Amino acid sequence: MTTIPYGRQNIDESDVAAVVDALRSEWLTQGPAIERFEAAAAAYCQSGHAVAVANATAALHLACRAVGLGPGDTLWTSPNTFVASANAARYCGAKVDFVDIDPSTYNLSADALAAKLALAERAGCLPAVVTPVHFGGQPCDMPAIAALARRYGFRVIEDASHAIGACYDDGAMVGSGAFSDICVFSFHAVKIITTGEGGMAVTKDPELAACMRLLRSHGITRDAARMQQVPDGSWYYEQVDLGFNYRMTDLQASLGVSQLRRLPEFVAQRTSLAKRYRALLADFPLSFQSRQGATRSAWHLFVVRLDDATKRRAVFDSLVKDGIRANVHYIPVHLQPYYRSLGFQPRDFPAAEAYYRGALTLPLFPALGEAGQDRVVDALSRALA
Asked: Cα separation of 40 and 195, whole Å?
């Protein structure tokens, strides 16, 4: 019996040819394909600037550094996310706190954010950065979050690791920069497009982009205008900041350029499958993620919540026995031992914890097809029975 994973990359011959061309070129590491990928991503998002890096965690870290997050500052994010959204702040020496989710969209709640900001203002402890996470590919209420950022003076870094190809309420692409300082994408193998591993930070701000480019490569520059002395020769460089080795390779970027051309097709296929899931599962004892306003999801994940959360483990195990590799996204970050050691406790963010208890991620990827989807639905029907 063939196992159906919860996610899978989609590689065709054009992708293979793009990587082979890169292998036969003069560049394997840092070369022209990276600039092509960045230009294509910036054009797609209409962001102006894009910085390709080794993975989305690196992009989040660089974004935090670029906006000046550091010791004494605090970043707020969603507890319903992968740990990287919070860890990026800790890498900068900053504190982390969380804002509970909307129980229907599973995203950071703009109402909860507004209430928490009002309390924080009175206590004199406003965040320096808020990182909303577009869970499953569904954008958060970014107009409301941006309005709060203007009122309270914090920076916004969108964690759109799930959401390249998604749209805001006004139809603009996620990453356009209308509501945030920086937006981050992931190109892990199970994401909507892939470079194997890889990430991207997009921004409208040329200074933020320049800062992230510098920091992704050890803080080293070959730009004479940024050097402290006249170059000794064309080989000369200077380290002007303490940066990192967060670079993407030309091999990865070549695959990224090819994959990006197929992004609209991938999103359309995922959307069609998600719509069909909703129809097939309409009478099942479960609920679906709600859409925020007129936004369009990129459908990285198809998540359901079981009406009877006590059955989740049994349902999960039954699916695995049937060859359906379902998953669970996510264990609330504040419940992880590391964050528990920082003082967070169960019941701190009840909506996220209630969501987690009944959450189940069903397989969703373009090659799943209707036959594979029917198999998932049949297995889930048996598991629930």
From this structure: 14
Whether 191 is a known active-site residue: answer yes
Q: How many CA atoms lie within 13 A of 301 on its CB side?
A: 26
C-alpha triplet 332, 74, 213: angle, nearest 5°: 95
Single out the catalytic residue among 95, 116, 191, 204. 191
Both 245 and 315 in one domain: the answer is no
Residue numbers of the domain that contains 50: 13-262
Do 249 and 333 sit in the same domain of this protein?
A: no
The CA angle 80-296-278, to the nearest 5 degrees, is 75
pTM beyond 0.85, yes or no: yes
**CB-based contact 131:158 (threshold 8 Å):** yes
Contacts of residues 368-374 at CB distance under 8 Å and 24 or more positions apart, as own/partner, are 368/4, 368/8, 368/273, 370/273, 370/276, 372/4, 373/273, 373/276, 373/277, 373/280, 374/280
Mean pLDDT of the chain: 97
* 67 lies in some domain: yes
Q: What tokens does 129 get?
A: 């950065």
CATH number, residue 176? 3.40.640.10
Answer yes or no: are the C-beta atoms of 324 and 376 closer than 8 Å.
Answer: yes
Percent over 70 (pLDDT), the chain: 100
List, for residues 95-150, the tens digit of each pLDDT value.
999 999 999 999 999 999 999 999 999 999 999 999 999 999 999 999 999 999 99
Q: Which of residues 262, 282, 299 is at a domain's end?
A: 262
Question: Does 322 share its domain with 255?
Answer: no
Residue 44 to residue 163: CA distance in whole angstroms: 13
The answer to whether 75 touches 129, Cβ cutoff 8 Å, is yes
For residues 167 and 202, membership in a common domain is answered with yes
Longest distance between any two alpha carbons in the chain, whole Å: 75
Q: Which strand ranges, in their side-by-side order, compose the sheet holding 302-306?
A: 286-288, 302-306, 359-362
Q: Is residue 4 part of a domain?
A: no
H or E segment to which residue 75 belongs? strand 74-77
138-162: per-residue pLDDT in tens? 999 999 999 999 999 999 999 999 9
Burial of 112 (0-12, 13-18, 19+ CB in 10 A): middle
